[in-house]
């Protein structure tokens, strides 16, 4: 049964109200995205410096690294702690779902190799999705995905390092959305512990500079010993790595939500155009029918 003009007009009003909401959410996400980008830019020099100092201390410590609990590899067996960094809210496109899919794929890989997985979830969406699948996380951290603080990263790092040092897990991995642009977020999977397997020892941007272009560095003297310095640097490195991932995830979430709401607003505009055309056709049909009735009545007279 074709819709009346009133029904179509009501649908146009409803879609118009939804479009106002999506536009407002887009503007809010854009404002929060700018602040999140500024926090990432401000953190990068410190994070790079911590990584560089830790790598240099590892090189200086030499064979003593194997005796340090957070640095030595424990083999390929044992459980793996996987931290999924998601958001507390939805309406952000594939932002949350792609982290969950990547986590489930990583879990399947570990199980194939005979390792168990202990879930840790940052963000209400990740925790609730894992619980729904019957894989409740060992610990969940919610309520700060919009604006994470360093204290939040420290709490997560303390729990993960305690699980590693207590022997509950032999490896710690993190999965998060790396922010590239509002349109592009890339899922990153990194090893946090042990440090010997982490991306830290793979080098940073400086390691990829051609050898002839690198400035010579003077030998460094350590006071106290490199091992003692590492004992202080490694926890800081884990904390700052998690904090960086939280900030990257926050910027990615705002970018994904801004893009999703923009697409929703555009789709609402297209739907309003189609409904308006449908209403005009219905009105023209009614007018034509009325004219035919008038003509038929006149002929009858």
Q: What does this molecule look like?
A:
It is a single chain. Strands 3-2-1-4-5 form a 5-stranded mixed beta sheet, sandwiched between helices. The protein is an alpha/beta fold and 301 residues long. The chain folds into 2 domains: 48 residues; 217 residues, Pyruvate Kinase, Chain: A, domain 1. It is elongated and about 110 Å long. About 5% of the residues have low confidence. Helix 1 packs antiparallel against helix 5 and helix 4 packs across helix 5.
What features would you highlight for this structure?
alpha/beta; Pyruvate Kinase, Chain: A, domain 1; 2 domains; 5 strands; elongated
Calculate the mean pLDDT score and round it: 84
Order of helices and strands: HEHEHEHEEH
Domain module tally: 2
Strand content: 5-15%
State the share of residues found in helices, binned by percent.
55-70%
Query: Stretches where pLDDT falls below 50 for ≥5 residues?
Result: 202-216
Counting DSSP E segments of at least 2 residues, the number of strands comes to: 5
For this structure, the CATH topology of the largest domain is Pyruvate Kinase, Chain: A, domain 1
The shape is elongated
Strand order of the largest sheet: 3-2-1-4-5
SS field, number of helical segments? 5
The largest pleated sheet is described as: 5 strands, mixed
Structural class: alpha/beta
Identify the CATH class of the largest domain. Alpha Beta
Give the radius of gyration.
Answer: 28 Å
Distance between the termini: 33 Å
CATH architecture of the largest domain: 3-Layer(aba) Sandwich
CATH superfamily label of the largest domain: ATP synthase, F1 complex, gamma subunit
């Amino acid at each position: 049964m074709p819709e009346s003009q009133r029904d179509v007009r009501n649908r146009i009003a409803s879609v118009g109200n939804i479009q106002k909401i999506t536009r407002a959410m887009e503007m809010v996400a854009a404002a929060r995205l700018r602040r999140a980008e500024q926090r990432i830019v401000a953190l990068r020099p410190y994070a790079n410096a911590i990584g560089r100092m830790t790598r240099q201390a590892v090189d200086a410590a030499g064979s003593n690294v194997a005796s340090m609990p957070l640095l030595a590899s424990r083999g390929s067996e044992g459980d793996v702690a996987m931290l999924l960094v998601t958001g507390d809210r939805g309406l952000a496109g594939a932002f949350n779902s792609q982290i969950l899919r990547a986590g489930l794929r990583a879990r399947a890989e570990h199980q194939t190799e005979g390792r168990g997985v202990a879930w840790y979830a940052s963000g209400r969406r990740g925790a609730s999705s894992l619980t729904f699948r019957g894989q409740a996380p060992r610990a969940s951290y919610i309520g700060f995905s919009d604006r994470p603080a360093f204290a939040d990263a420290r709490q997560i790092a303390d729990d993960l390092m305690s699980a590693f040092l207590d022997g509950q897990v032999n490896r710690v991995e993190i999965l998060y959305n790396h922010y590239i642009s509002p349109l592009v977020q890339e899922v990153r999977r990194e090893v946090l512990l042990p440090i010997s397997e982490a991306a830290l020892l793979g080098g940073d941007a400086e390691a990829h500079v051609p050898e002839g272009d690198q400035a010579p560095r003077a030998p460094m003297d350590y006071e106290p010993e490199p091992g003692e310095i590492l004992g202080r640097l490694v926890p800081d490195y884990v904390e700052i790595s998690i904090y960086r991932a939280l900030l990257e995830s926050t910027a990615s979430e705002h970018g994904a939500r801004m893009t999703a709401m923009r697409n929703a607003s555009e789709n609402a505009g297209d739907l309003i155009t189609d409904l308006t055309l449908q209403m005009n056709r219905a009105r023209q049909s009614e007018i034509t029918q009325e004219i035919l009735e008038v003509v038929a009545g006149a002929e009858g007279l």
